[in-house]
């Protein structure tokens, strides 16, 4: 078997209707990652639905409802190969109410392509997504200035958007000098895979070319083992099979492991017997591996989604309270002490109470603007103290960043996102 290429998670983000899905579809099609016949079907489907021009978007928007509305609702994942890497493409919705998926998407992404329409420039969601990408640790960005065909392939239009976006990038702490800006027309195929004939003034790379210049993520193999449990199955003849993705560290067959908090809150100890990925037995699992595994000594009733597995000599941290740096994204009024929304941390969902608002920060620079404010509102960054209603595994950003990030949700909307900076161990 040929050595597996290095893997990169790539998220496509941007304001609704700025062409994310069309860009992804065009990329997959022109690079021969989907075939003619499948594309023909989608073209016919688009015509039938009175949505000519949406055929590339349909490559990613495979939910029926999305095809009828022409909007991306859920996160779609697609494999995509270039000469150098293999990518999982995450097409993140631009709609406001779909921002929760954007957060789960960006939290797994190593790099992001931000689509900004040349005709409209920076919009509310463009700002929010770039800001979120920063908070959630997406360190490499590519800016695709789309719909250049509708801007008459005008260099001045491109430069104006580039300036606008550069200012935005700077304000949240990206260095625009390290970001590639590409003028593209996804529907027509300009500068996605094939170089455009229509923009002789642009001499830089296509989107495809720039993807091969990205840096793959460092696998955090030297950090302690942390494997959040996604599901627990009982499989006849094998027994209990927990499933999850290794965030940090390495798990080998024979390892002594502990799952915390576990049902009783004391943790459950066992020994790793088998590891399987894509129906193949493995001797060990590394960060990024989605695995099913079997542990001697662990019963189905002992563990659940949201628990975290580690080695017995370095168990995951169970916190009774923690301090966090957060950004308020989308709260209908204001956040005050006593507020108890649901925190989504790795695979756990736990109600947590805000017990103190210690500092209000400038979201762009992080400097302190107020001590102990009465409330915080949309656009504010803050340092807060939080008490989970039940034990919860979380780690400090400085120690295991992969296990420190979270989203805060309340009645169906994502209210805030942030990371843990301090904690009190159980």
List the helices and strands and how they pair.
Elements: E1 6-14, H1 20-30, H2 36-48, H3 55-60, H4 64-69, E2 76-81, E3 85-91, H5 99-107, E4 111-117, H6 124-135, E5 140-146, H7 155-172, E6 180-183, H8 207-211, E7 227-235, E8 239-245, E9 251-252, E10 256-260, E11 268-277, E12 280-282, E13 284-285, E14 290-296, E15 308-311, E16 318-328, E17 342-345, E18 348-361, E19 368-371, E20 381-388, E21 392-393, E22 405-410, E23 413-425
Quick take:
The chain is an alpha+beta fold and 426 residues long. It has helices at 20-30, 36-48, 55-60, 64-69, 99-107, 124-135, 155-172, 207-211; strands spanning 6-14, 76-81, 85-91, 111-117, 140-146, 180-183, 227-235, 239-245, 251-252, 256-260, 268-277, 280-282, 284-285, 290-296, 308-311, 318-328, 342-345, 348-361, 368-371, 381-388, 392-393, 405-410, 413-425. It is built from 8 helices and 23 strands.
Report on this model:
By secondary structure, this protein is α+β, with helices and mostly antiparallel strands. It folds into three domains: 6-211, Rossmann fold (3-Layer(aba) Sandwich), CATH 3.40.50.300; 227-311, Elongation Factor Tu (Ef-tu), domain 3; 318-425, Translation factors (Elongation Factor Tu (Ef-tu), domain 3), CATH 2.40.30. The chain is 19% helix and 35% strand. It has helices at residues 20-30, 36-48, 55-60, 64-69, 99-107, 124-135, 155-172, 207-211; strands spanning 6-14, 76-81, 85-91, 111-117, 140-146, 180-183, 227-235, 239-245, 251-252, 256-260, 268-277, 280-282, 284-285, 290-296, 308-311, 318-328, 342-345, 348-361, 368-371, 381-388, 392-393, 405-410, 413-425. The longest helix is centred in the middle third of the chain and has 18 residues, at 155-172. Residues 63-76 and 93-106 have low confidence and may be disordered.
């Amino acid at each position: 078997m040929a050595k597996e290429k290095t893997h990169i998670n790539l998220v496509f983000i941007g304001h609704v209707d700025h062409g994310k899905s069309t860009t992804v579809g065009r990329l997959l099609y022109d690079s021969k990652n989907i075939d003619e016949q499948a594309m023909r079907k989608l073209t016919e489907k688009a015509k039938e639905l009175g949505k000519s021009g949406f055929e590339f978007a349909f490559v990613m928007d495979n939910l029926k409802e999305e095809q009828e509305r022409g909007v991306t609702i859920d996160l779609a994942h697609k494999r995509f190969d270039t000469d150098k890497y293999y990518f999982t493409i995450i097409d993140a919705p631009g709609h406001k109410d779909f921002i929760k998926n954007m957060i789960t998407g960006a939290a797994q992404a190593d790099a992001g392509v931000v689509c900004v329409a040349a005709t409209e420039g920076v919009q509310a969601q463009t700002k929010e997504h770039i800001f979120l990408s920063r908070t959630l640790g997406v360190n490499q960005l590519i800016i695709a200035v789309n719909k250049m065909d509708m801007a008459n392939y005008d260099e001045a239009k491109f430069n104006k958007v580039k300036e606008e976006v550069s200012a935005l990038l700077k304000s949240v702490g990206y260095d625009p000098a390290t970001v590639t800006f590409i003028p593209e027309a996804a529907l027509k195929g300009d500068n996605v895979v094939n170089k455009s004939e229509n923009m002789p003034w642009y001499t830089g790379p296509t989107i495809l070319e720039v993807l091969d210049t990205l840096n793959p993520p460092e696998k955090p193999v030297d950090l302690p083992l942390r494997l959040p449990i996604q599901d627990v199955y009982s499989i006849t003849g094998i027994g209990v099979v927990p499933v999850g993705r290794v965030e940090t560290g390495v798990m080998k067959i024979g390892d002594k492991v502990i799952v915390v908090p576990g049902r009783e809150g004391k943790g459950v100890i066992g020994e790793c017997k088998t590891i399987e990925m894509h129906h193949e037995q493995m001797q060990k699992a590394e960060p990024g591996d989605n695995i099913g595994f079997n542990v001697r000594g662990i019963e189905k009733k002992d563990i659940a989604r949201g628990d975290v597995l580690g080695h017995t000599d370095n168990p995951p941290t169970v916190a009774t309270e923690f301090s966090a740096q957060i950004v308020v994204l989308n709260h209908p009024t204001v956040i005050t002490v006593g507020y108890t929304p649901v925190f989504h941390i790795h695979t756990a969902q736990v109600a947590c109470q805000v017990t103190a608002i210690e500092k209000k920060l400038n979201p762009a620079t992080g400097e302190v603007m107020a001590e102990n404010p009465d409330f915080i509102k949309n656009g504010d960054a803050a340092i807060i103290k939080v008490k989970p209603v039940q034990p919860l595994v979380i780690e400090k950003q400085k120690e295991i960043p992969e296990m420190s990030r979270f989203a805060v949700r309340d009645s169906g909307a994502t209210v805030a996102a942030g990371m843990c900076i301090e904690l009190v161990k159980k």
